[in-house]
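Lecture notes, part 5. Sequence design as translation. It can be helpful to think of inverse folding as translation between two languages: the language of shapes and the language of residues. The source text, in structure tokens, appears below.
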């Protein structure tokens, strides 16, 4: 197991809790988060070699999320709500050991505010993409080895997962913000899709934004939950 894998498992233990981590489903989540960065890393040979002659690893790992909960401010470009700020902190902790190399967002406040804290945490500059050209976005990402976080919308995130060759797993509901796709693209193999759930769980008809605002919960005190997707 690599050092990155050990750190990721330790992170999952802290975020989820040791007892929950022992369950088969959540352990699979922790292993996925540990292995995805390692799969995209270039193996290191024990023999000295000229780095200029080394083949570049072409694995692409893509994490896709909808923006976090948005505020209801009466505009067509609202910022994140308190609940959204909480969810971003959870996602940032979850992806801390994913070794992200790229962060992509659309040009809306809610997507930029979802991606920026994560980009800043890993030291990369967020790149804007055009959600009207998902096939072009998918082609560019698939051709760029590394580990990408893509922040989108309820009506673009499943579609982008599909454009990458992954399983979109149905439409995202209006109040559903906890879906996290992991699409792993390895040359000469079918893309592998894993659907996870993180943070406050989606319950049809329940709005976490209203409860979070009412209870005045701060992002720094939020508890993270990671669950296999359904």
């Amino acid at each position: 197991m690599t050092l990155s894998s050990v750190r990721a498992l330790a992170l999952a233990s802290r975020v989820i809790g040791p007892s929950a981590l022992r369950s088969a489903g959540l352990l699979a989540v922790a292993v996925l988060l540990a292995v995805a960065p390692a799969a995209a890393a270039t193996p290191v040979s024990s023999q000295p070699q000229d780095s200029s002659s080394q083949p570049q690893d072409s694995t692409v790992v893509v994490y896709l999320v909808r923006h976090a909960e948005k505020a209801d401010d009466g505009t067509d470009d609202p910022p994140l709500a308190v609940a959204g700020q909480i969810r971003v902190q959870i996602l940032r902790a979850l992806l801390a050991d994913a070794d992200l190399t790229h962060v992509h967002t659309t040009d809306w406040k809610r997507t930029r505010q979802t991606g920026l804290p994560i980009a800043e945490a890993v030291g990369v500059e967020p790149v804007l993409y055009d959600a009207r050209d998902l096939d072009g976005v998918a082609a560019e990402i698939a051709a760029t080895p590394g580990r990408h976080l893509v922040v989108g919308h309820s009506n673009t995130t499943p579609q982008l997962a599909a454009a990458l060759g992954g399983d979109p797993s149905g439409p995202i509901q209006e109040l559903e913000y906890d879906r996290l796709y992991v699409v792993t693209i390895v040359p000469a193999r079918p893309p592998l899709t894993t659907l996870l759930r993180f943070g406050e769980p989606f319950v049809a008809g329940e709005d976490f934004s209203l409860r979070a605002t009412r209870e005045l919960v701060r992002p720094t005190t939020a508890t993270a939950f990671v669950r296999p997707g359904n």
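The translated text above is only one of many valid answers, since several sequences can fold into similar shapes. The chain has one domain: 57-228.
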